Amino acid sequence: MATRWITTVSEMKAFRAETSKSLALVPTMGALHEGHLSLVRRAKMQCGVIVVSIFVNPTQFGPTEDFARYPRSPEKDLELLRSLGVDVVFAPPGTEIYPAGFAAFVDPGPVATVFEGAIRPGHFRGVATVVLKLFNIVRPDIAFFGQKDFQQVVVIRRLVEDLNLPVRIVVCPIVREADGLAKSSRNVYLNAEDRKAALLLSRSLKRAEEMAQAGEGDAQKLLEEIRKTFDAEPRAQLDYAAIVNPATLQPAAQLIPGSVALVAARLGTVRLIDNLIFGPQGSTPDLKLQLALTTQPTNEGEQRNS
Ligand code: AMP
Description:
Helix 9 runs antiparallel to helix 10. The protein has eleven helices and nine strands. The protein has helices at about 10-20, 35-45, 75-85, 95, 115-120, 125-140, 150-160, 190-195, 200-215, 220-230, 285-295, and strands at about 5, 25-30, 50-55, 90, 140-145, 170, 235-245, 260-265, 270-275.
């Protein structure tokens, strides 16, 4: 079947209404790379019909952020998705999702106010709102998200649970460049020097993982090591480094399997994020994800969020 390019909510709903097979949704903002494509491949293994949405969502960008210059490559994206046998690319214009008079938003609660939410106020309100709209328009059985945006996964899982949304969320591991940098549409903004310095994010996480595997379970010690790595590189400004309970995003005092280290840093004007799930030595990325996504909301080692 040829890949259909759909731009209106009514046509998307009509397509959905005619489909009886299990349907997967992969929400994206386009400028597709291997990270996005890994989600599509997973989706193909689990569902009969694949819908990929491409929508650079204005409500999740702050007024001084990069909405206008966010990379867009619709022709190339369509080509890639066609080659993977995607059934529908849903690429609505802004006015289709936010027509005149649009006013209702979703408040995703406390997990949306820390880390990315603290630095980008309103970001997750925009994310949760557009994802809920996409779920209502496309009505997927399963929706696929990347671990790359770990806090986003936590926000979406809360949204689905708290609002009883009839969709299953599948989370896929981070796809990296050969040197370790997490793939991101924003990597194209990096100049050669900053591209080199950007390796600090993955390298500092890797270092923490090595320490953990050598027996260090004290989150503060691991964080000190991560911060030290950043102190040595003046091109990179660390926005935050934290080790958290994956369900609540509350800081953890002691590592448990499934604890997550989150880092965000700026290189010039480019903001990058990365994360790492701690797991038993030799555990696969999927097992680590499973550990993180089944960790209970509270544990004894947890600190109060100051
Ligand atoms: P975006 O287009 O940045 O909104 O990303 C769309 C989806 O792709 C999100 O669920 C992201 O978490 C996921 N994604 C982005 N980069 C990667 C990556 N390097 N590895 C795995 N998933 C990713």
